[in-house]
Structure formats: structure tokens, C-alpha cells
Specification:
The chain is mainly beta. The chain has strands spanning about 15-20, 40, 50-55, 65-70, 75-80, 85, 90-100, 105-110, 115-125, 125-130, 135-145, 150-155, 160-165, 170-175, 185-190, 195-200, 205-210, 215, 230-235, 240-245, 250-255, 265, 275-285, 290-295, 300-305, 310-315, 325-335, 345-350. The chain has one domain: TolB, C-terminal domain (Neuraminidase).
């Protein structure tokens, strides 16, 4: 299977954060209110660890991701707002928690004794391999509140992953648009059982929805380029991600696919950014979403928040001054947003002695 081991690639100083709304909802604010609507909370380290990656949070504000244990060893973690728990692995060195539902059930991938990726589910303190008895590799990227789990997987020895649903003890390979040479992954599953992700064939990546036993290619912004990628979906079947533009050399643009079959380039909506909105990373059920903007001049990354009440805003403008900390920071990326508009993401730290430290997320 094709693998990019994102958690092993982190070599620079980053920390995971939860950005929680200072007021109950942004809908209660007016244009004259203080712009500082978010307080940033650092997810604590574990046994002196320096690096954390956060991937998702649920509506209770509980978060999951991966944390550096020691000497390049990464373990999936669960954080309940006060305590961080090391979920362990399936016998290997590393793992990543990718998603959590509102019952605090966590899914992800962890190495087994042979250092191969295996999809897992963690529930009530127990870590269990998905597809037990099946000689598979896999990653579980998403779980809904009905405990349906989705991701990618495939038999050991294959060099490509396939979209997979784990449901009621069954491991189900989903249909693909190129069944001979292609593959795919599911990145999100909503409470109605609809799944969204990416199918691929060669260099073509195509945003895809699996629903009611069928699959559909969602299309891209480009004219025949067929390059799009899904990152999330809400319970109204609104799907978010990114798509290439008109030509193969055109960059990524943040993209929203709506249930009426339309494709929306978020850059065509009114905003005050001097940057290209290059991705949409997560969306909640009220239509608020988060993503990243890339500077056209310097290729710098800047997270943004979109709400129906206020439109697009640079996320750093919504956080209060941080001079009480022993470092400065800038937000390196946002990952997920829950129904309360709480957001998880990553900080890049700049130490007060002037030494800069940066990080990346995958």
C-alpha cells in the first residue's frame, strides 16, 4: 500500500492546541465586539514530550492525535480536556489517532509487531485491531456516532490502499472508479452513513462520495484535470476539501461540494485575504468551516475561519495577545471544528531568544 508516514516526518518544534470560543457562539457577536473570540489552550505534553499532532475533536471538546514519546516514537493519544492518555500501539513503535466520535470512541492506525500499519479502534481503555483475523494493512480515518468506521486498507503485499468500511464486525471494500489500477480512501463518514473521500487512478485524484450502496465522483474545479481531494463532511452531506484549477500547473483551491451537485471555489466568495484560500479542512453542521490560505508572494500558510455570520476571517486575528507565555507563536494549521465552533490545530513556536522553530502537518 502507498504510505506516507506523516507522524514520523515531524522533526521541528510544534505543539497541539484547542482553540475554544470565549463566548458561547460567534453568532452572539456584533461588529463592535472585541475581535478576540478564541482562547488558545495547549494540549499538555506526556512524559516530557516536545511534539504533538492533533487531528480531531468531538462536540465535548475532547481531542485525539499523536504524541512524541521518546526517540522518534509516536503514540496515539486521547485528551479529555484535562488529562492526556497514551493509547499505545499494536506491538510496534508508532501510531496515530485520526478521529473521535461523541461517545469518546477513537479510531486510527498503529504499528503491529512487524511495524506494519493496522487500523484500530479504542473504546473504554481497550485498543483493538479492526478486521481481526484478516491479513490486512489499514488506517481508520473516521467514525460516526453509530460506530461505523471508515478509512483505507488492503491485503498485505499490495502497493495501494482501497476505500474501506468497518461496520458491525465486517470489513467491506467499497467500489472504486478504477477497479483494476486504482484505489482510494474514506476521510469522513457522517451519522447518516454517507462517506466522502478520494479515489485515485495513476496521478488522478478524484473527490468521491459513497452513499446508499453507490459511489459518485464529485468532480473538480479544473477543465478535465480531475485532481481533487476530500478532507471532511457534515451531516447535511456538504463536503469540503481542495481542487486544482484550470490547468495541471494551477495550484490548489479550497473547495466545497454541496448536496445539489454544485462545486464551489471558496476564493470566488468575498474575503479580505491577500492570499489564495488553498484548502478547506473541516466543516460543522451549521456551515462554519476552517482551512488554510497560502500567500501568493511568499508561499506562507495562514489559517482562516468562515462563519455564516461574519464570513472569512484570519484566525490569528481572533486570538488574544499571548505575551504571558515564554514564547511567541503563529498558527501553523487548523484541523477540525465541532458544533460549538471549537477548533483544533497546531502552533509553531518562536522562542523568546529569537530562535525560530517551525513544524508541518500532514
Amino acid at each position: 500500500m502507498k504510505r506516507t508516514n506523516n507522524n514520523k516526518a515531524i522533526t521541528t518544534l510544534t505543539t497541539a492546541i484547542v482553540a475554544t470560543t470565549i463566548l458561547t457562539t460567534s453568532a452572539t457577536l456584533t461588529a463592535n465586539d472585541s475581535p478576540y473570540r478564541y482562547a488558545i489552550i495547549r494540549i499538555p505534553s506526556l512524559n516530557g514530550s516536545e511534539f504533538e499532532i492533533v487531528r480531531a475533536l468531538n462536540d465535548h471538546g475532547h481531542a485525539v492525535g499523536s504524541i512524541d514519546i521518546v526517540d522518534g516514537t509516536w503514540h496515539p493519544f486521547f485528551w479529555d480536556g484535562s488529562t492526556i492518555i497514551d493509547l499505545g500501539t499494536l506491538g510496534g513503535r508508532t501510531g496515530m489517532a485520526w478521529d473521535i466520535n461523541n461517545h469518546d470512541v477513537v479510531v486510527g492506525q498503529a504499528d503491529d509487531n512487524a511495524d506494519e500499519d493496522q487500523a484500530f479502534v479504542w473504546n473504554n481503555g481497550q485498543l483493538k485491531k479492526l478486521g481481526e483475523g484478516v491479513l490486512w494493512l489499514g488506517r481508520a480515518y473516521a467514525i460516526n456516532d453509530n460506530h461505523q468506521i471508515a478509512g483505507e486498507g488492503g491485503p498485505i503485499g499490495e502497493d495501494i490502499g482501497h476505500p474501506v468500511l468497518w461496520d458491525n464486525g465486517e470489513t467491506i471494500i467499497l467500489p472504486e472508479f478504477d477497479s483494476e489500477r486504482g484505489g482510494g480512501e474514506v476521510r469522513s463518514i457522517n451519522d447518516n452513513g454517507a462517506m466522502a473521500g478520494t479515489s485515485w487512478s495513476g496521478t488522478n485524484n478524484q473527490a468521491t462520495i459513497w452513499q446508499n450502496g453507490e459511489f459518485k465522483i464529485l468532480g473538480s474545479l479544473g477543465d478535465g484535470t480531475d485532481r481533487s481531494h476530500v478532507w471532511g463532511m457534515n451531516n447535511h452531506d456538504i463536503i469540503v476539501g481542495q481542487s486544482h484549477g484550470v490547468g495541471p500547473a494551477d495550484p490548489w483551491y479550497g473547495t466545497v461540494w454541496t448536496s445539489d451537485g454544485k462545486i464551489h471555489n471558496v476564493n470566488r466568495q468575498e474575503h479580505n485575504f491577500s492570499a489564495r484560500l488553498s484548502s478547506v479542512r473541516g466543516i460543522n453542521d451549521r456551515g462554519a468551516f476552517i482551512g488554510g490560505a497560502t500567500s501568493r508572494k511568499h508561499d506562507q500558510y495562514q489559517p482562516y475561519l468562515y462563519t455564516p455570520e461574519r464570513g472569512y476571517e484570519p484566525f490569528m486575528d481572533l486570538t488574544p495577545p499571548h505575551h504571558q507565555w515564554d514564547f511567541d507563536f503563529y498558527l501553523g494549521g487548523v484541523r477540525d471544528i465541532n458544533k460549538h465552533d471549537q477548533i483544533v490545530g497546531r502552533l509553531d513556536l518562536v522562542l523568546r531568544d529569537g530562535q525560530a522553530a517551525s513544524g508541518s502537518y500532514g
